């Protein structure tokens, strides 16, 4: 995504050739650690502990460019989350908002609690897609969506695991076309769908799809709830 993906979508790679080669050289070991991590029934093994810092180093190689991890078009502003969030934080710390949400007044809201994040570090490279087929089998609608300008949870990687997912509708889903949809008279993205499973690529949106493309996000939500 950082090299070919940025090249295709932005006209130039997000990282230089040297960094790209470094990423490629790290990939086999990263995949090996992920495979070893998932070979265990739980995350309590050294491979899961080692996979997180090793594999996320490739994200940091991207970060040294100064670009936003969540939107390849933008610079990273502020802390690791790359977005100025003072207004949002102030709003969610207001007593009336806390009361309206039914949240505990003695807990201070944080955009990202790093203590909680650290507790999930061993799960970071565990495969949880096995939870999706039972939902589909039960007739529950599932939609996976991604903004096509996101780096860290990019649409290419999401589409890869979605098309690799083993479920009864796999062949029909993979044979389906990516159909472009329009919102407000303009192309807003592509959807691939079969039965109760769909994958959506949202154009010109980063990680925060509702923030970048609110009309498209609302359209998708309404379509999903309407079906």
TrEMBL record:
<comment type="similarity">
    <text>Belongs to the peptidase S10 family.</text>
</comment>
<dbReference type="InterPro" id="IPR001563">
    <property type="entry name" value="Peptidase_S10"/>
</dbReference>
<keyword id="KW-0378">Hydrolase</keyword>
<dbReference type="InterPro" id="IPR033124">
    <property type="entry name" value="Ser_caboxypep_his_AS"/>
</dbReference>
<dbReference type="GO" id="GO:0006508">
    <property type="term" value="P:proteolysis"/>
</dbReference>
<dbReference type="Pfam" id="PF00450">
    <property type="entry name" value="Peptidase_S10"/>
</dbReference>
<keyword id="KW-0325">Glycoprotein</keyword>
<keyword id="KW-0121">Carboxypeptidase</keyword>
<keyword id="KW-0645">Protease</keyword>
<dbReference type="GO" id="GO:0004185">
    <property type="term" value="F:serine-type carboxypeptidase activity"/>
</dbReference>
<protein>
    <submittedName>
        <fullName>Serine carboxypeptidase (CBP1) putativeserine peptidase Clan SC Family S10</fullName>
    </submittedName>
</protein>
<dbReference type="InterPro" id="IPR029058">
    <property type="entry name" value="AB_hydrolase_fold"/>
</dbReference>
């Amino acid at each position: 995504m950082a090299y070919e993906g940025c090249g295709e979508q932005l006209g130039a790679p997000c990282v230089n050739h040297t960094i790209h080669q470094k990423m490629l050289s790290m990939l086999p070991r990263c995949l090996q650690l992920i495979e070893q991590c998932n070979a265990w029934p739980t995350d309590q093994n050294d491979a899961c502990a080692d996979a997180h810092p090793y594999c996320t180093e490739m994200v940091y190689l991207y970060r040294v460019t100064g670009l936003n991890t969540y939107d390849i078009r933008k610079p990273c502003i502020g802390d690791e989350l790359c977005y100025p969030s003072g207004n949002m934080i102030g709003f969610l710390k207001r007593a009336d908002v806390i009361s309206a949400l039914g949240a505990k007044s003695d807990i201070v809201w944080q955009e990202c609690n790093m203590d909680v994040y650290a507790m999930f570090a061993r799960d970071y490279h565990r495969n949880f897609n096995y939870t999706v087929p039972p939902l589909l089998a039960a007739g529950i609608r599932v939609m996976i969506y991604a903004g096509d300008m996101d780096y860290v949870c990019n649409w290419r990687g999401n589409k890869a695991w979605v098309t690799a997912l083993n479920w009864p509708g796999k062949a029909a889903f993979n044979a389906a076309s990516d159909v472009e949809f329009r919102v407000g008279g303009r192309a807003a993205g592509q959807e691939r769908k079969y039965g109760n499973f769909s994958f959506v690529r949202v154009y010109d949106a980063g990680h925060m799809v509702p923030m970048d493309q609110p009309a498209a996000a609302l359209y998708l939500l309404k379509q999903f709830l309407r079906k």
